[in-house]
């Protein structure tokens, strides 16, 4: 019998009486595990070996667990402090016991949430008791962590589950295969197995020499285990941004482009945002220190915008009775919204005067001095858009949102009246989070006011919006923390495994 080299090697290394794992065979034959697996499958289909599969669990203590192995579990620290405070006799004040325990930050919550569960005592309305019979020495979770750390295995599934849910162990499963010679395999070996020359890869030389006609090619085995390789890939946020762009282009929109750092004029003044608006203080804007201002603002437009701020527009227009300075308008900051682009385009500054109907969009980054939390980042992507046409109504706006979000599987939009200095009426948009069921704000929108449109020279209706790309992602994939997706705390595994659906 003639077989490819790797199969001959595996056949020789396998035994009829004792199952050998892929790793053992790989070590013995000096072949890669994936080559051995491939060969084993081939031999199995030829009836020469059997391949058994089982699942192997690897449990590894996390960094946090190692800390506790060193310093003790937080709930045990709390128990010891409670004992010191005499809480085994009379309830002690919880605040004091926590202070004494030396626990800090998140460890306090961790201690509290495990204390009663593990029978160390009770916690009720500010008081803590300690069960005198509790024995930290025989804490099952600690013992299990210590065993794992020493390379031993832990059989108690409940304890493992608990440790996993506390984030103290990482459990990963892998398929283990082992190979045994069949009777047929033994017979084949006794009759003699020779190595057939097989070619794993076609080369240009083989093609030019014509040698390819005579060689035997090794078969591919697409089921063989191979090493996992995480190649670079487009970030899911970028993938979704691209999908949003495709969707909007499909709906007849054209893309806007423009500066991330822009004059306050485009970011705020053109939007009829008074210069003394709270959002325009230095707290909220990321000002540029070099350069500090933009010189080439369109003078006519600046004049009309200033006039609207002072006097409003129309016969009985009403302006702001607040100061307006051109220096303030020229100052450069990172844009807090991409509505600056909408102003640039609507004013004719970018692509010339526009005749209705028109539709424009951008999917671009904006910057805000917010406090970081699960739904806020200092920078995020805004899906900006506007439609310019005669006689638009709120129905057109809602219809556009329904059509857009439906393409991402979101069909339960809700609207809430809102206030923007530049739109009237204005609406916030909400969608339901697929796992928590909470209503998540996904965007803000409205019909631009006369005070915005008149100075820009637009004399028909314009409906507009700014939607959050990250929040759209949260609704699509059920992320609960925006920081899982980007920033320094991003969950790489999640990013590797999430597939953007088209
Ligand atoms: N600029 C608004 C969004 C918006 C754009 C256009 C019109 C109305 C609202 C925001 O950032 O929240």
UniProtKB/TrEMBL annotation:
Its EC number is 6.1.1.20. L-phenylalanine binds at residues 339, 382-384, 422, 448. The keyword Nuclease does not apply. GO terms for molecular function: ATP binding; magnesium ion binding; phenylalanine-tRNA ligase activity. One of its GO terms (cellular component) is cytoplasm. It comes from the Archaea. One of its GO terms (biological process) is phenylalanyl-tRNA aminoacylation. Keywords: Aminoacyl-tRNA synthetase, ATP-binding, Cytoplasm, Ligase, Magnesium, Metal-binding, Nucleotide-binding, Protein biosynthesis. Belongs to the class-II aminoacyl-tRNA synthetase family. Phe-tRNA synthetase alpha subunit type 2 subfamily. HAMAP family: Phe_tRNA_synth_alpha2. This is Phenylalanine--tRNA ligase alpha subunit.
